[in-house]
Amino acid sequence: MQKYNTSQREILISFFKEHADELLSVNDIAAGVSDKQISKSAIYRNIAMLSDEGIIKHFVLEDSRKSCYRYISNRECKSHFHLTCKKCGKTMHMPKSTSEEIVNLIGENSAFKTDISQTVFFGLCENCK
Amino acid sequence: MQKYNTSQREILISFFKEHADELLSVNDIAAGVSDKQISKSAIYRNIAMLSDEGIIKHFVLEDSRKSCYRYISNRECKSHFHLTCKKCGKTMHMPKSTSEEIVNLIGENSAFKTDISQTVFFGLCENCK
DNA sequence: CTAGTTGCAAAGAGTTTGCATGGCG
DNA sequence: CGCCATGCAAACTCTTTGCAACTAG
Q: Strand D closer than 7 Å to the CB of A37?
């Protein structure tokens, strides 16, 4: 957990904010901030902290084994599902009502308790399909 | 894609069949067949082939960066969602009708085209919750 | 036979860590 | 000032690859 507010931390937070709803790999991030003063280990360490704090969310796509991260714009993101486009990597937010409907539907048909924040729908977005 | 039916390939297929519905890491697999005659590179190469053939499915859990694999018992697995328990790793199969209902629900509310076979619900199973 | 597969060891990619230096509060 | 964070390089883990030997068909 973070104690100090370093310039490296701020560089990363702004970068994530500028790329909200995009899945960013560590390389994407490193490339995006390459003109700034920040080492790769600082990137890794800050990302881990931001992830612990719930400011960004960690992901691993099935095809690459690389870690990716997405900025969590608001804390309500825990009450709705996310839809991520396999092609362009953009993430959309499913309406809360639809999300709840899906959770209930699953609950009715099995004893499985779905974790909304851990589940991501993959598919194709309007532009890519 | 496979051409020959080697003993190493058969060792792996039986191991996957014995552990259907479990998420197996490469280490799990290597440990499970350590008494058999098979090298780690053969495991990796066969797994890649089995995955291409659709006999097993590749996964990466969010927390570890490790690849995991699950045996696909029947080819119908493309028309229903899977529910994976975050705790014990077991996978359940959602009824096809429920799966379709969910896909439709999403389609009604957005232009997103969900890919059933790429999407996995994470949560807690009856025993673990 | 002969092309695909294996085992080994070496190479790669991504990530983590130890340690001295530097900076926030 | 004291502790936390940084940068660098080395270490680690998981996975892939080159190559000679082996084997299924």
A: yes
